[in-house]
Design goal:
This protein is of the alpha/beta class and 288 residues long. 35% of the residues lie in helices and 17% in strands. Strand 1, helix 1 and strand 2 form a beta-alpha-beta unit. Helix 4 packs across helix 8. It comes from Microterricola viridarii. This is Glycosyl transferase. One of its GO terms (molecular function) is polysaccharide binding.
Length: 288
């Protein structure tokens, strides 16, 4: 599975299926949990290894209030050292659950995302994930229905999932799921990208900016505490307000210049630096 997807880098590591009856090797020094389900076997393992938690989102919010949400939330009380994706999670887990936390910043791979179109753009992009509630698909459709009335001549691209079975009240291009290598060409046709993030911010805003697209994102600390880049248009959760902001982006007289400036604003943001921050956090925690 890892080798078949462009989303995963080449791994120089040995993979093995964890057997709870056996546990990890006796000389294991560090044990990482990732998704909340893995935190329980990590917690129960008999090893003396230091426990870490690689937290990429606030997983209790993935579920309605009930058993799964509580089980996910309880893992933040296990005493693991958290290393989080972005500053919002680090702040939240430390302030609300007392976890020891470090974080790394989001970045962007410029080999995938770059400006290739220096002309005006008359399309927009929506990260459409109806199967992922925290991406607020239905709310996004309300936004785009209003936007389509304001700008009926602008092409609306939906990508992230095949939405052909949904009743959508405006004209759109259904791009379904795209490979990484296909995204930059689509982005470079678009002036704005609508990205709804109700928990931890998506990677898309930085990737869109690298391709010269203005990210229009719902306002909130979960997003602002991950990136305070001034080119991200943070808007309150109002369909009409977000639709108007999308229309404003399309109409900007300096659209081309701003596109280039946005890309330049993330030119120095590199995953190598994020990786270094992760390793430094890990080594610091191991030293105590």
């Amino acid at each position: 599975m890892l080798a078949a997807s462009e989303a995963y880098p080449n791994l120089k590591a040995k993979l093995a299926v964890y057997d709870p009856a056996v546990g990890v090797a006796a000389d294991t020094q560090a044990l990482f949990a990732t998704g909340w389900e893995t935190a329980y076997p990590a917690h129960r393992d008999a090893s003396l290894a230091k426990r870490f938690y690689f937290v990429q989102d606030f997983e209790p919010s993935f579920y309605p209030l009930g058993s799964e949400a509580i089980l996910a939330e309880n893992t933040y009380k296990f005493g693991f050292h958290g290393i989080t994706a972005g500053g919002w999670l680090s702040h939240k887990l430390h302030s609300e659950y007392g976890m020891r936390t470090d974080h790394f910043d989001f970045a962007v791979d410029k080999s995938h995302y770059r400006v290739t179109n220096t002309e005006r753009r008359n399309e927009i992009f929506f990260y459409a994930r109806p199967v992922t509630p925290r991406r607020a698909f239905e709310f996004g459709l309300l936004v785009l229905a209003d936007f389509a009335k304001l700008k009926p001549d602008v092409t609306i691209n939906l990508a992230g999932w095949d939405v052909s079975n949904w009743k959508i009240p405006f004209e759109y291009e259904n791009l379904s799921s795209l490979q990484l290598s296909e995204l930059n060409e689509v982005y470079n046709r678009c002036a704005a990208g609508l990205v709804m993030s109700l928990s931890n911010m998506s990677l898309l805003p930085l990737e869109l900016m690298s391709s010269g697209v203005t990210p229009v994102v719902n306002d909130g600390p979960n997003n602002r505490m991950v990136s305070d880049n001034p080119n991200i248009e943070y808007v309150p959760m109002s369909p009409q307000a977000i639709a108007r902001k999308l229309a404003e982006v399309i109409d900007r007289e300096d659209a081309v210049e701003r596109s280039l400036a946005m890309s330049a604003s993330v030119a120095a943001v590199d995953w190598e630096d994020s990786g270094t921050a992760f390793v430094q956090a890990f080594e610091g925690a191991m030293r105590g």
